[in-house]
Amino acid sequence: MSPISGLFFLLPLTLSLSLSLSLSLSLTAAIATNQTNATTLISKACSRSPHTDFCLSLLNSDPNSKTADLKGLAFIALKAASKNATATSATIKELLNDTSDAGPTVDDGLRSCDQVYGDVVDQIEDSIDSMVSGAYNDVGTWMKAAIADIETCENSLQGQKGDALEVSQKNRILRQMCNTALGIVHVLADN
Hints:
Layout: H1 3-45, H2 52-60, H3 70-97, H4 104-132, H5 136-156, H6 163-190
């Protein structure tokens, strides 16, 4: 092989490797930039949440948050709250149907929770509907009503043990979810 033919062989190979390396580095930089932008947006979304760490954890646990805008992040938080409220309502119904005797005070508290959790689920769904139409004030109204109903349930369980403690723990988590969604909606409304 002559030196010139070797040069013609090596030149395309070198160019091809250089181009592949350049594209790979550009793609890596673009991915890193998108991850940084997502992290920055999630931090901004959680800036008005009373439970910032909880908000960050909630949003970062959903893979859709990496590509979502502020409105998308609000939907993620609202849908998580909706799913949790529905599950908590089902738990309360199961506890009421349990044949073990939790005592009249706990049963009364669970019945009160059962009544208000139907409203909580509906109010969170109404918040999602309001979010779709961009009625952020209505989202706030519905979420505040849901939080108040969660408090009503919690107050009816005050000082109780057993099944009441399980529902109380679920109330605390749902209240944090609702406050997280409400905080994100406030950030969204300010933009």
